[in-house]
Amino acid sequence: MINRRTFFSQSALSLSLIALPTLVQASTVTRRYQLAADKSNVSFDDKGEETSLWLYNKTTPGPLLKARRGEIIEVEFTNRLDHPSTIHWHGIRNINEMDGVPDLTQAAVEPGETFTYRFPVNDAGTFWYHAHHKSWEQVARGLYGALIVIDDDEIFDNERDHLIVADDWLLNEEFQIDTPSLGSLGHWSHGGRLGNALTINGSFSPNIEMASQGQVRLRLLNAANARVLSFSLNNRLPMKVISVDGSPCQPFEVEEVTIAPAQRVDVVVEDCGKLSKLFEVSTGTQFEAARFNPIKPHATRHSVNLNKEPYYPMLDTTNARVVEIHMQGGAMGNLATALFEGEERSLRDLAMNDSKLWAFNGQVGGYDVSLADFNLGDIVALRVWNDTAWPHAMHFHGQHFWVKSGEFGQEEKALLRDTYLMQPGEKKDLVFIAENPGLWLFHCHMLEHHAAGMGGVISIS
Ligand code: C2O
Ligand code: CU
Questions:
Q1: Pocket of ligand 1 contains residue 431 by CB under 6 Å
Q2: Cα 158 to ligand 2 centroid, rounded to whole Å
Q3: Is 395 in the pocket of ligand 1 (CB under 6 A)?
């Protein structure tokens, strides 16, 4: 991880500040960062072949941002691209104006302009940030990074706490981002843009240094545009899932973990002495994604608290407001016509002339399409039906929802998530309490699907 060491030494400094008794809010620590979106050339491996990307601070992933729960994050964002851009703080239960959705929560940051994001982080966990203007292109070109918020009883530990950011890039034979395929209707109508080169923390099969014995925490994040990734460890070593999409969960053990685009899963491995490899297994073969290298164990030991509560408990849905969202469209789907900008049109016409392919409740989505209005305090069940031939990673901005997840094997598991992977035909209630006011996007995180109509706005006031 680029700049990792610098971050750790900075955090050690701030830790001593936090240890002081804080009685008044005025003492709240502000973590200041600067992010500049820029074109840059990087190499994914030591062969030195360079790829031209769009990155934050010329690194892939972008700089790792860190904070402690209760602090304020302030990011001065400068756009040095030739295109407008914004930053979305994925998974943060944010202040609406800081959510980074162009034309909904802010004006896009134009080339040469600067915009300062400033918001408190009240939840601990693994989050990420990414461009939200034409994200199907900007994220594909590299505009994303991770954000870790640690809890009061946690420390920044570079031997036992590891971020693993996965991405699949679509590269051509010259090893460059394949740009002619950006916007391809084939991708937009099928499973989205799938890459052919997997990186972990911006490298092909990197060596990850970690403690040589005892517990380690791996924070897995899928930053791909559309590919659902699955990971396992050498010898199918068990991993204990302790947190999904930032929020702690009742720990459970798995040998393989599936992570849809934008999702995060934090796992604990009890004895990292046995750990040597991370495999990506979604294709049915074991692809060596990363290697783990032991370094000297930490002098002071600490272990992960496995008894943390989710951000908020499961809700009683007896009086919930139910809103149905019927997802249709795409290749091999059952959508013949849909409403777009007030006009009912055939899917073929919409695809050919406007690159629109998906609909919610018969209407092509967009930042100007309202899905529901809720009052503050409402308990809500979004009853979502994936009536398409494709899986979709459904993401809700600004809050986490409870879902009886089918993502971890046969048995349903109630999890608090911000992104849920829905299989074709699946119907699920996404349950939340409407306590964060504002205009919030609900969309598919297969970013091509979002651009092609799979998204809309939920208002809470
Ligand atoms: Cu991570 Cu609207 O997205
Ligand atoms: Cu989708």
A1: no
A2: 35
A3: yes
CA of 443, nearest ligand number: 1
Q: What's the rounded mean pLDDT across residues 228-254?
A: 98
The mean pLDDT of 83-103, rounded to a whole number, is 98
CA of 250 to the centre of ligand 2 (A): 28
Return residues with CB closer than 5 A to ligand 2 (ion). 392, 444, 446, 449
Tell me whether strands 321-329 and 379-386 are parallel, antiparallel or unpaired: parallel
Q: Look at residue 76 and give its three-state secondary structure.
A: strand
Q: 66 in ligand 1 pocket by Cβ < 6 Å?
A: no
Give, for 266, the enclosing helix (H) or strand (E): strand 264-269
Tokens of 124: 């601990």
Strand-pairing partners, residue 164, are: 220
- Answer whether 443 contacts ligand 1 (Cβ < 6 A): yes
Average predicted confidence (pLDDT) for the chain: 92
Which protein residue has the closest C-alpha to ligand 1 atom 3?
90
What is residue 21's predicted lDDT score, i.e. its pLDDT?
41
Q: In sequence order, what are the residues at sequence separation of 6 or more whose Cβ sits closer than 8 angstroms to the Cβ of residue 343?
A: none
Q: What is the mean pLDDT of residues 416-429?
A: 98
Residue predicted with more confidence, 155 or 147:
147
Rounded to whole angstroms, the Cα distance separating 456 from 461 reads 17
Both structure tokens of 283: 């294709």
CA–CA gap between residue 368 and residue 347 (Å, rounded): 20
